[in-house]
Design goal:
The complex is a heterodimer.
Chain A lengths: L20 E5 L4 E7 L1 E11 L7 H25 L6 E5 L13 E6 L6 H15 L5 H27 L2 E2 L8 E4 L19 E4 L6 E2 L3 H18 L7 H9 L5 H12 L10
Antiparallel strand pairs in A: 1-2, 2-3, 3-5, 4-5, 6-9, 7-8
Helix pairs in contact in A: 3-5, 4-6
Chain B lengths: L1 E6 L4 E8 L8 E9 L10 H23 L8 E7 L3 H18 L2 E6 H13 L5 E5 L4 E7 L2 E7 L5 H11 L8 H9 L12 E2 L2 E2 L2 H13 L5 H9 L4 H6 L8 H27 L3 E5 L6 H13 L3 E4 L2 H4 L3 H13 L27
Helix pairs in contact in B: 1-2, 3-12, 4-5, 4-6, 5-9, 6-9, 9-10
Classes of the chains: A alpha+beta, B alpha/beta.
């Protein structure tokens, strides 16, 4: 198999110093770390290359639609004071790169320091698996309490987002970050179990849209519930805590949660008891 | 170990015989035969007619399979059957046959989840070790990944299956159901050039097809492309549509253009949710199973996506993609090997049986 090479960067990023470094390749976009204006200001650069598997007309339509809607959502959320990265620059026409454009689009955002929640939970689950035998019941309870409080913070962060009139569209634990409090050391609490202190920051609004409907909000929560169930089996039973955090975060939460009950019943061929 | 697999959850009746050699060498397919119930153009297959088809063919197919595999009844260790999901009446007619053979021959029964059958057969044939699985057929659309003893569903359709969407559009256009409506749409789509605007519905890792079907049915009606008459007309005039389609983007779409646009749109959605699942679990392998998985355009698109991620796509041809008996035998034998049995009193079938309900004891 050929070694994987990411697609070439669009101009002007193909001649900045230092060159942008590739952080992750998401499903839709490549995320780079770069600088904005001044070498001391780090920035996140999200590049949506064109998808060669799609028909060019469909590809252009989707790429443009998504990058502009992402930027609009972020701009709106920053105004509303929700913790998301701020938008610094944007190219939705794909003018950069070779002549005639390169078909993709890019978005530059504020740099957020910290791990994604998926990594934190994976580390925690691995640590628990390893140390479970050594812990007494109060220590286990203590560990689980820390996860509960993280889930509660995630719930209220999502509540604040929904209150601002935006739904995320692709909530997974990879799209939630934990920004450590300013001045706090990243040292874990002495045991090797990962730290869960910090602000929850929502990232990747590539599938977000502006909506105040219970349906969309409920689908958001449902997607996250399933993502947690499939990637963090150990934390899944504590999802209830996230719901509690969400319920207390804004007025409309109760009716969105009621809708969640309906959404859960909807998947195909669910076993129907009774 | 030798197992017979009996599959009949939709319009295909499949009987397969698999051998798992005792020395641990790779499993072998001894027989894989299938008989399909084909309904006339413009119609789908009804449960009662399909069940009647299965009832009248099942004995003949089992006899033929034994003969082809050159084994006798004594060589057989267990009888595997599809427990679900699928259409009620066809499932029932096959489960009755399986039960009857079990009592007649004194062999143990193993009930198999149809989706798990597809996954296990795909893994066996392609050699993919731990892929993200896209299971697309006339009744199912799921993106699946394995994690701690379960095949977990990451994304699925919120309403109809993608194959059902294609089949029903084939009905609108009166495209033949022989050998399969999806196959004939694929052939017609190869002549399509113009992409018409259709809804594109992805919600997280889930997707929805019913609105797309309604939209394209509407377009077919608007341009007068549906129905039997138009189908006959198009058949008579051979491919001269190439010149017309090049004129301008605003020109009237042809039947081929609609098939092309439908495929491009729904397959893009499928590739997108698969890519999202791959990014989420960090896998570089994709396995496509199910009847729609034999579509070469879907395989091509998935291949481009996987290549751009530094991975690869695994797909099989119609012998293993489309419902068959050996996949039931293969998954059944894996379960049988771990001590799983279905007692006669519990040898029922069910229309609803989710992929993630099965405890996968045979993988770590």
């Amino acid at each position: 198999m050929e070694e994987y090479k990411p697609p070439p960067l669009p101009s002007p990023f193909n001649n900045t110093t230092p060159p942008p470094t590739l952080l992750t390749q998401g499903a839709e976009a490549h995320l780079y770390k770069t600088i904005s204006l001044n070498p001391s200001i780090p920035a996140a650069l999200k590049i949506r290359p064109s998808k060669p598997y799609r028909h060019p007309i469909l590809d252009r339509r989707l790429t443009r639609q998504r990058i502009t809607s992402e930027a609009r959502c972020l701009a709106k959320l920053i105004r509303e004071g929700v913790s998301v990265p701020a938008v610094l620059a944007l190219d939705w026409e794909g003018h950069g790169g070779s002549e005639g454009g390169w078909g993709g689009a890019w978005l530059m955002m504020e740099w957020i320091d910290g791990p994604v929640v998926r990594v934190v939970l994976e580390q925690w689950e691995a640590w628990m698996k390893q140390n479970e035998g050594l812990l007494d019941s109060s220590q286990i309870e203590n560990e689980e309490a820390r996860v509960r409080s993280l889930l509660r913070k995630m719930g209220s962060a999502i509540g604040v987002l929904h209150k601002a009139g935006v739904v995320h569209g692709d909530l997974t634990t990879s799209n939630l970050m934990l920004r450590p409090y300013a001045g706090a050391s990243d040292a874990v609490n002495g045991t090797g179990s990962p730290s869960m202190e910090g602000d929850v920051v929502l990232i990747d609004f590539g599938l977000a849209s502006q909506s105040n409907q219970d349906e969309d909000r409920a689908v958001d929560l449902y997607v996250l519930e399933r993502a947690i169930g499939s990637t963090h089996p150990r934390s899944e039973p504590m999802f209830e805590e996230l719901i509690l955090g969400y319920r207390d975060s804004y007025k409309g939460a109760v009716s969105a949660l009621k809708r969640l009950e309906d959404v859960r019943m909807r998947g195909r061929k669910r076993s129907m008891l009774g | 170990m030798i197992a017979i697999g009996m599959e009949g959850s939709a319009n295909k009746l499949g009987i397969g015989i698999m051998l798992h050699p005792k020395d641990g060498s790779p499993p072998q397919v001894l027989a894989n035969i299938r008989h399909t119930y084909v309904s006339p153009p413009g119609e789908g297959f009804l449960p009662k007619d399909t069940a009647r088809h299965h009832r009248s063919w099942v004995v003949k197919l089992v006899k033929q399979a034994l003969k082809e595999a050159k084994v006798t009844v004594d060589d057989v260790d267990c009888i595997c059957f599809t427990k679900g999901p699928g259409m009620g009446a066809p499932l029932q007619s096959v489960v009755i046959a399986a039960r009857m053979l079990s009592v007649l021959w004194g062999k143990e029964l193993v009930g198999v989840n149809h989706c798990v059958g597809h996954i296990e057969m795909g893994r066996l044939i392609t050699g993919a070790t731990n892929p993200v699985v896209l299971y697309v057929s006339g009744g199912n659309t799921q993106v699946i990944a394995y994690s701690s003893q379960r095949y977990r569903i990451f994304g699925e359709t919120l309403d109809m299956a993608v194959g059902n969407c294609l089949d029903r559009f084939a009905r609108t256009l009166h495209i033949s159901n022989d050998p399969a409506p999806g196959y004939n749409i694929e052939q017609l789509a190869k002549q399509g050039k113009q992409l018409v605007d259709l809804p594109y519905v992805v919600k997280g890792m889930d997707c929805s097809f019913s609105g797309i079907l309604a939209a394209i049915d509407g377009l077919a009606k608007q341009w007068g492309l549906g129905g039997e008459e138009k189908a006959r007309e198009d058949e008579q005039k051979p491919v001269d549509s190439t010149t017309a389609a090049d004129e301008s983007l605003e020109s009237k779409p042809t039947r081929a253009d609609l098939c092309f646009s439908l495929q491009e749109t729904v397959f893009s959605m499928l590739v997108e949710i698969t890519e999202r699942a791959m990014a989420h679990v960090g896998s570089k392998q994709v396995l496509i199973v199910g009847g729609v998985g034999s579509n070469e355009r879907l395989q091509e698109m998935m291949g481009i996506m996987a290549r751009d991620r530094g991975g690869s796509v695994y797909a099989t041809d119609e012998r293993f993609c489309i419902d068959n008996g050996i996949m039931i035998a293969q998954a059944g034998m894996l379960a049988y090997g771990t001590g799983f049995r279905t007692p006669l009193s519990e040898s029922t079938c069910t229309q609803r049986f989710r992929t993630d309900e099965v405890f996968v004891k045979w993988r770590d």
